[in-house]
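Annex B. Sample input.
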Amino acid sequence: QVRLVESGGGLVQTGGSLRLSCLASGHTFSTYNMGWFRQAPGKGRELVAAQSLNGGWSNYADSVKGRFTISRDNAKNMGYLQMNSLKPEDTAVYYCAAGLSLGLYDVWGQGTQVTVSS
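Annex B, continued. Sample output.
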């Protein structure tokens, strides 16, 4: 089974940018569909962006469309979430997830904190 480790979180001002990375190990990443989720304090976990195993299909939550971009480099076993024009409401722990079936995620990273100051 693949293992996932996120990095790239941090503190940024409103309007700033961050790029989250997700390193996959233990199995061929290219066989997994990928998703990025987030969970803000006191709220449930929500899907931010998803991408098919070959990168040919992507989908975004309405709240991040036009600001976030999901991508992957299967040769490097890496997934990414580029986040631009960040807002305080984007503050959350962000998780990388993977699954063999699109829309079903059964492997999760440990999460990385993103804090956007106003």
